[in-house]
From TrEMBL:
The keyword Nucleotidyltransferase does not apply. The keyword Membrane applies. PANTHER family: SULFITE OXIDASE, MITOCHONDRIAL (PTHR19372:SF7), SULFITE REDUCTASE (PTHR19372). Pfam families: Oxidored_molyb (PF00174). Keywords: Membrane, Transmembrane, Transmembrane helix. Residues 263-414 form the Oxidoreductase molybdopterin-binding domain. The chain crosses the membrane at residues 12-36, 72-94, 101-120, 126-144, 188-212. It comes from Arthrobacter hankyongi. This is Molybdopterin-dependent oxidoreductase.
C-alpha cells in the first residue's frame, strides 16, 4: 500500500493554538484599544499600514478587479497572511517554545511599529498592542502545554506495521492515531474553545465600545453651543498674577484636573440624554438635551475644587461654564416643604448630595453643557454635568448627570458619604504658592513670588506672605473676576543667600483669615497654611 503522507495531528493542534492565540492577541488589544484612539488598535493600524504598503500596481489591480470591494479584498488577504503566520508560529512554539515566543514578540514589534508610525501617534497608543501580545503569549503557552507528546501521532499509520515485532513489548496495544474525542485531547480542545470564545467576545465588546465612543465623539465635534442669554462679565484686566510660573487664570480643558470613579468614561449620546427630576416635588418631569439648548443659558467663571486636595495641591481648576441654572429646574419642579437636599446621579451610578438651599439661593449653580467655549470634554461629563460654586466636587459637581431627586439628608446618602466623607462639603478657604516651586535654586535679588487663593462664593480679599519668621507682608492681589472663582496674587521678595521658607495665608470676605490648623482632606477638606522651601545661592 502506498504511504499516505499525513500531517500529524499535534501539528494541526499546534497550528490551531497559533490561530486561537492570534485571536486572543487581537481581541484583547481591541478591547483595551477602546480606551484609546482607533489607530491604537493593532488591527486598525495594521490595516492602515497594509494599505500604505500595498504597491500601486497591486492597488490598481485590486480596484480594477474588485471595484468598490477593493478594501474588503485587501483586508481579507491581510487576514489570510496573518492566519498563515499564526499557524506557523503555533507550530514553532510547539516544537520549541522559545522560538515561538520570540516569533510572537517579533510580530508584536511589527504591530507596534504599525501603530507608532501612524500620524499623531503617542507612546501610550502602544498599550493595547503590549497587553494584547502578553495575552496572546499566555494563550499560546496554555494551549501548547495541552498538546500531547508528538511521538505518538508523528508515526504514520502504515509505519506501525513496518516496525519489527520485537521492537515493542508485546503487552503494548497497537497504537491508534489519537482522535479529537480522545480524553487526553479534550483538555486542549476545551481550552482552545474557551480562549477562542473569549477572544471573539473581547473583540466584539472592544469594537462596540469603540463604536459608541466614536458616535459620541462625533456628536460632540458637530455640536454648536448656543450663545448665552446672560454672558459672564468680561474678565477684568489683570486677573493673572504678574509672577512667572503661576498657572493660567483660566485652566485649559486638557489641563483641568480629573477626578471620578469611572473606569471607562461614560458615553452618553446627547440625542438620547435625559434628565429625570423627581422626588419631593409637586411636579416631576424629564428634560432632554434639546430642552437645554432651547433654554436661556448663562455663563459663569467658577473654580472647581476636590475635597481630596491637600494643602498646596493641584486638584483645582477654573473655567468659564455655560449652562442652565439649577434654580430654574427646581422652580419648575416646585420642591415640597421639608426637602433639604438634591441627590444627583450620574449614568454610571455616582451620587452627590447637594443642599437644596444652595441650589436656590441665586448663585450660579448650573446644569453645565459648555466648558471654556467648548462642549464639555467627555472626561468632564459630556453632555451635561453640575457645577455649583462654593461646594467641593464630591457633593455637587456630578458629571454625566441623568437624575435629580429632591429629598432629605435624613433619608438619603451619597457615594462618598457612604465611604466616610461628610454629607455636606462647603469649600474651605485655601491659598498656595506656585512660584517659586518647592526646593527651587534661586539667584539673590528680586524674586517674583506668586500663586492662587480661593474661597468660592465668599471671595478672597487679602493675601499675605511670610519669609522665614519675618513679619507677614501683604501680597498684591490680581483682579477679581467673580467671588466664585479663584484669585491670583504676587509678591516681590528681595532674596538673600541661604535656605528660606516662604509661607502664604489668605482672608475670605465672609470668614476672615484662613485657619492655620492642619487638617487632612478626609472627611471634609484639608486646612492649613502652605509653605515652600527654597535655596538662594551665595
Ligand atoms: N459621575 C461622576 N461625577 C463626579 C465624580 C465622579 O466620580 N463621578 N467625582 C466628583 C468629584 S470628587 C470631583 S472633585 C469633580 C471633579 O470634576 P472634574 O473631573 O471635571 O475636574 O467631579 C465630581 N463629579
Ligand atoms: Mo473630589
Amino acid at each position: 500500500m502506498k504511504t499516505l503522507k499525513r500531517i500529524p495531528l499535534p501539528a494541526v493542534e499546534a497550528a490551531l493554538a497559533g490561530l486561537v492565540s492570534a485571536g486572543v492577541l487581537l481581541g484583547v488589544a481591541q478591547l483595551v484599544g477602546a480606551w484609546f484612539r482607533a489607530l491604537a488598535s493593532p488591527l486598525v493600524a495594521l490595516g492602515a499600514a497594509f494599505i500604505d504598503f500595498t504597491p500601486v500596481w497591486l492597488k490598481n489591480f485590486a480596484v480594477d478587479t474588485f471595484g468598490t470591494a477593493d478594501k474588503l479584498v485587501l483586508f481579507i488577504s491581510m487576514g489570510v497572511v496573518m492566519a498563515v503566520l499564526a499557524c506557523l508560529v503555533g507550530v514553532l512554539a510547539w516544537k520549541r517554545w522559545v522560538w515561538g515566543a520570540l516569533a510572537v514578540v517579533l510580530l508584536g514589534v511589527v504591530m507596534a511599529a504599525a501603530v507608532i508610525t501612524r500620524a499623531g501617534a503617542v507612546p501610550a497608543d502602544l498599550i493595547p498592542t503590549a497587553v494584547g501580545v502578553l495575552a496572546g503569549l499566555i494563550s499560546l503557552r496554555l494551549l501548547v502545554n495541552r498538546i500531547p507528546a508528538p511521538a505518538v501521532a508523528a508515526v504514520p499509520v502504515n509505519m506501525t506495521a513496518a516496525v519489527p515485532a520485537g521492537a515493542a513489548p508485546p503487552n503494548v496495544p497497537a497504537q491508534e492515531p489519537p482522535t479529537a474525542t480522545d480524553p487526553s485531547r479534550r483538555s486542549f480542545f476545551a481550552t482552545a474553545g474557551l480562549l477562542a470564545a473569549a477572544a471573539v467576545l473581547a473583540g466584539a465588546a472592544g469594537s462596540a465600545l469603540a463604536g459608541a465612543r466614536r458616535t459620541v465623539e462625533e456628536a460632540r465635534r458637530l455640536m454648536r453651543l448656543p450663545a448665552a442669554a446672560k454672558k459672564a462679565p468680561p474678565l477684568p484686566a489683570g486677573v493673572q498674577s504678574t509672577a512667572q510660573g503661576v498657572g493660567p487664570y483660566i485652566t485649559p480643558n486638557q489641563d483641568f484636573y480629573r477626578i471620578d470613579t469611572a473606569l471607562a468614561v461614560p458615553m452618553l449620546d446627547p440625542k438620547t440624554w435625559q434628565l429625570r427630576v423627581h422626588g419631593m416635588v409637586e411636579r416631576e418631569f424629564t428634560m432632554n438635551f434639546q430642552d437645554l439648548l432651547d433654554a436661556e443659558l448663562i455663563e459663569s467663571y467658577t473654580t472647581l475644587t476636590c475635597v481630596s486636595n491637600v494643602v498646596g495641591g493641584s486638584l483645582a481648576g477654573n473655567a468659564k461654564w455655560l449652562g442652565y441654572p439649577l434654580k430654574n429646574v427646581l422652580s419648575r419642579a416646585r420642591p415640597l416643604p421639608g426637602a433639604d437636599m438634591v441627590l444627583s446621579t450620574s449614568s454610571d451610578g455616582f451620587t452627590a448630595s447637594t443642599p437644596l438651599e444652595v441650589l436656590q439661593d441665586g448663585r450660579n449653580a448650573l446644569l453645565a453643557i459648555g466648558m471654556n467655549g467648548e462642549p464639555l470634554p467627555l472626561e468632564h461629563g459630556f453632555p451635561v454635568r453640575m457645577v455649583v460654586p462654593g461646594l467641593y466636587g464630591f457633593v455637587s459637581a456630578t458629571k454625566w448627570v441623568t437624575d435629580l431627586e429632591v429629598t432629605r439628608f435624613a433619608d438619603k446618602t451619597a457615594y462618598w458619604t457612604d465611604r466616610g466623607w461628610s454629607a455636606k462639603g462647603p469649600v474651605k478657604t485655601a491659598s498656595r504658592i506656585e512660584a517659586p516651586r518647592a526646593f527651587a535654586q534661586l539667584q539673590p535679588g528680586m524674586v517674583a513670588v506668586g500663586g492662587t487663593a480661593w474661597a468660592q462664593h465668599r471671595g478672597i480679599d487679602r493675601v499675605q506672605v511670610q519669609v522665614d519668621d519675618g513679619a507677614w507682608q501683604d501680597a498684591v492681589l490680581a483682579a477679581e473676576a467673580s467671588v466664585d472663582s479663584w484669585r491670583q496674587w504676587s509678591y516681590r521678595w528681595q532674596a538673600e543667600p541661604g535656605t528660606h521658607t516662604l509661607r502664604v495665608r489668605a482672608w475670605d470676605k465672609v470668614n476672615g483669615l484662613q485657619t492655620e490648623q492642619r487638617a487632612d482632606p478626609i472627611p471634609d477638606g484639608a486646612t492649613g497654611w502652605h509653605s515652600v522651601q527654597v535655596t538662594v545661592q551665595g
